Amino acid sequence: MERTVRWAERAFRHWRSVDPEPQQALFPIVQGAMDRELRRDCARRLLELDAPGYAIGGLSVGEPRPLSYDMVEATEDILPRDRPRYVMGVGMLHELGEYVSRGTDMMDCVLPTRNARNGFFFTPQGKLVIKNARYASDPSPIDPACPCYCCRNFSRAYLRHLFLAQEMLFSTLATIHNVFTYLDTMKRIRQAIVIGNLPGFLDRLRAADAPLV
Fold first, then answer.
1. What is the pTM of this model?
2. Structural domains in the chain (count)
């Protein structure tokens, strides 16, 4: 943690010396492993940098998911609410709302694209594994309610054929669907916040944490 703080201080000195009025944002990263007090101490010290936003790192590295949520909560009351909070490297579709409900504004993750390449589709009903034989003659789209290019134009059967044939087109189409689904989920989370129904929406997201097989 000490090295993280020193590195951030050094980075901000250089950043501000190069451009006193920078046009890009630099976020220091809150670290501290799985120790709440270390993370809180790190967050307090990084506040002195008066950064345009703050990242939370060191998560999604194999720890139980409840512990990951707890580490985000540990600094929720310290990091300024008028600056973006960015949790690095998370998460599964059903986890997006969990992090948002703990004060997170931004997340990034390879899961939508990596899972796409490996034949996994995210849907509001759960994860769909396209290689399974049940989809060999299935004429329906991945998600009948999804308006993405993949779902509007291609059947599960054809997508399964592309995957088994190792066609490059499969990765493109699956990525389009998964990224669209993630963006649409975040849009729905924002709408749920506006109308005051985030808890109800979170319950529906949690129910999607299961494969359609």
1. 0.88
2. 2
